[in-house]
């Protein structure tokens, strides 16, 4: 899928820097913390960082910001690597871990202490908080702020040796407790954590904080432009403070952009973890999740996600993007690329009474009307077929052009049929079969005498059908802004869409679907785009519906607004 890139303010900054000679290359990084799976918001940052590096012939690093061993897990490292690769990006040899720099971070901390710009503080976490002040009130100096350099060095080295319990001491930057920016009020840069790290094992029991480790990692790697989301704007003075005081050679420029929010879903890892742990979804890769792995299982393609990130653009102010834009991107991509098949989700039997005996024949069908190179396939036709129950009405309403008693319709790629009789179960009244006649002259779907029919139905030959299951997904939340709802006191039970998953069994598909492999995408004509679930078997296929053909939600919403 081609992407027509729009220019944005970060590109303007980069181009200015290249022109002025401030930089002669562009080095960016994507810095996930391995404490969860990546979501569509991360995709925005990935596309931006890798995209800019590519555009300007520079490079983009994948760096794990693994400084909090209590929350992190190698499972997440692995999934993040897979997801970034799947999105189509390549960091070459530039895979890094903040934990690789622990020794250097430590030495920088010693330097700050020696310069009188860091001190060991022995207030407890609660006290530190209360000394910090508020937005309207300045903070107070810690009673430990004036410790001598030697005392600080000794204590910090003892912290590193493991001589103290968690929470006994922290190392703080000595900046300004009266600063209007709370981030500058002597922020903590090291804390004692007696936790085993997934890469450094038990080598360390002090771990750096995000603000301290992040700017130093950027500097060590020679990053030119450090892109992050808007909430870090107030952290930028601190980012610059560390790098200035340490006098490092490379001082990257931090640039903030608005994070992606999408309606009808949540993107905070805290909320996503809650959905997984409470069993509201089947896991991080549940097709209803906004995670990259969930979208993949749902049938989203990397190209559609890149296109989406391109369309939403990069701006300085927060806004909420409509989920239908993401759906538009996958429809566009799959319309061009997905092979078409016929399948009946909710089958009702049609007997063609004048079709010769037990015979069958092969008809030719086009694989993708958007792309001739995808060729044709043959579909078996016989005297007993299935059509969609919804495509028949005994008492058709106005403008219903599908099958009804006495009415003639076209079977796609096959024949015209006319409904002659409806057979119902005498007890339940349920339709057992619909009896029709066909016109052998209309083979292929056109009548030689030029008569027209208004409806064209999809169908599957009963004797050849592959019985399948289909999972129909809808939005996970029924309300557009679940996080705001949470603030209003609404729980997940009030905001989750109870119909976000509908499992259908006994669906009947044309035999060609047997050749599809897990992960393959397709269109079932008139029904939507689907993909073969990873746990599907050729004997009993499972299809996930990625998206319907039309935006039914937009219609429902419109209706609700008009009510
Ligand atoms: P969450 O808020 O979901 O817990 P996070 O920001 O803590 O996410 P990180 O692993 O620290 O997750 O994020 C890695 C990078 O992805 C950061 O640079 C962050 O700014 C960016 N990022 C995270 N969420 C979004 C989003 N919704 N839109 C754009 N960028 C994002
Ligand atoms: Mg973060």
TrEMBL record:
Question: What sequence ranges are listed for the domain Glutamyl/glutaminyl-tRNA synthetase class Ib anti-codon binding?
Answer: 338-439
Q: Name where it mostly resides.
A: cytoplasm
**Annotated ranges, domain Glutamyl/glutaminyl-tRNA synthetase class Ib catalytic:** 26-335
Q: Which UniProt keywords apply?
A: Aminoacyl-tRNA synthetase, ATP-binding, Cytoplasm, Ligase, Nucleotide-binding, Protein biosynthesis
Into which EC class is this enzyme placed? ligase
Q: Where does L-glutamine bind?
A: 65, 210
* Record-linked CDD domains: GlnRS_core (cd00807)
Q: Which example biological process does GO assign this protein?
A: glutaminyl-tRNA aminoacylation
Q: Record-annotated residues binding ATP?
A: 33-35, 39-45, 259-260, 267-269
Q: Where is this motif: 'HIGH' region?
A: 32-42
Q: Does the keyword Aminoacyl-tRNA synthetase apply?
A: yes
Q: Which GO molecular function entries does the Swiss-Prot or TrEMBL record give?
A: ATP binding; glutamine-tRNA ligase activity
Q: Which GO terms describe its cellular component?
A: cytosol
Subcellular location as annotated: Cytoplasm
Q: Which residues form the tRNA synthetases class I (E and Q) anti-codon binding domain?
A: 456-533
Could you say which EC number(s) this protein's record lists?
6.1.1.18
Q: Where is this motif: 'KMSKS' region?
A: 266-270
Which reaction is catalysed here? tRNA(Gln) + L-glutamine + ATP = L-glutaminyl-tRNA(Gln) + AMP + diphosphate
Q: Give the multimer and partner information.
A: Monomer.
Could you tell me which PANTHER family the record lists for this protein? GLUTAMATE--TRNA LIGASE, GLUTAMINE-TRNA LIGASE
- Stated family: Belongs to the class-I aminoacyl-tRNA synthetase family.
**Full protein name:** Glutamine--tRNA ligase
Q: Which organism is it from?
A: Desulfonatronospira thiodismutans ASO3-1
At the highest ranks, the source species' classification is: Bacteria, Pseudomonadati, Thermodesulfobacteriota, Desulfovibrionia, Desulfovibrionales
Q: Which gene encodes it?
A: glnS
